[in-house]
Amino acid sequence: MYYLLRQKSQLKRWAAGLMLLITSQQVNAQLRDELNLPDHDSKKYYLGIGLIYNNSRFQVSQHPSFLNEDSVMVSEPQNVGGFGLAGMHTLRLSNRFELRAIFPQLLFAYKNLTYHIKHPDVSKNEQPIMTKRVESILLGLPVHLKFRSDRIGNFRVYMFGGAKFEYDLASNSTARKAEDLVKLKKYDFGVEAGIGFNFYFPVFILSPEIKVSNGLSNIHSRDVNLKYSRSIDQLNSRMIVFSLIFEG
């Protein structure tokens, strides 16, 4: 009798385990059916395109001779918005890590410098406060290492960091007649870091992301003969970039 009861108890446990296994398989199948692009995470390499909005400014370091400047009292930066386009190339390294190269990245960036003039030259239409806009067309190559969270349904979070190299197609460092200009060098490099979110749709992935991009090199081509240039020693680029990335 004890043996039969024991066997009956084991059969109940096996039946319960079998039912649990079947239920689990059914839930997994249903979940897989509801997932968009369920096989995307197994791709070794995939492409994307990014629509970019950037907010740019200079980090200004005044030249030591600024205290002796007899025309410019103050020079300060202002934030200005811009836009751009980028191609995304992503290589899957593991379940957690991806390597991403952004090329070509084309940014139209604008940075303002506001000057307070001690003795405005009326003949040159100068005012006590003058704003000079510095325009850049930046062809860039950022490279990022991405760290991805687990995928929860059709959503995932990722963080990234890396370096960038930029070439300014609108550089005016060789301009000769540039009395009212602030000249910029052609090349810049820096570091970037940010966070993004993957939203999986039936035919594509939408990834809004935000990053901070800081230039490390001095991009100011100083000219002691120019009033708006000689008061400044170094200019470093500072940028906050918001992107909408479409990947497939």
Count of helix runs: 2
Mean pLDDT: 84
For this entry, what is the oligomeric state of its chains?
single chain
Describe the largest sheet.
10 strands, antiparallel
Uncertain stretches: 1-8, 21-27
Q: Helicity level, as a percent range?
A: 10-25%
Span between termini: 64 Å
Shape: elongated
Q: Radius of gyration in whole Å, from Cα?
A: 28 Å
Number of strands: 10
In percent, how much strand structure appears in the residues?
A: over 45%
Q: What structural class do the secondary elements suggest?
A: mainly beta
| Topology order in helix (H) and strand (E) letters | HEEEEEEEEEHE
Briefly say what this structure is.
By secondary structure, the chain is mostly beta strands. The protein has helices at residues 2-34, 227-230; strands at residues 45-62, 72-78, 80-92, 97-117, 129-140, 143-148, 155-168, 187-200, 205-215, 232-247. Strands 1, 2, 3, 4, 5, 6, 7, 8, 9 and 10 form a ten-stranded antiparallel beta sheet that branches.
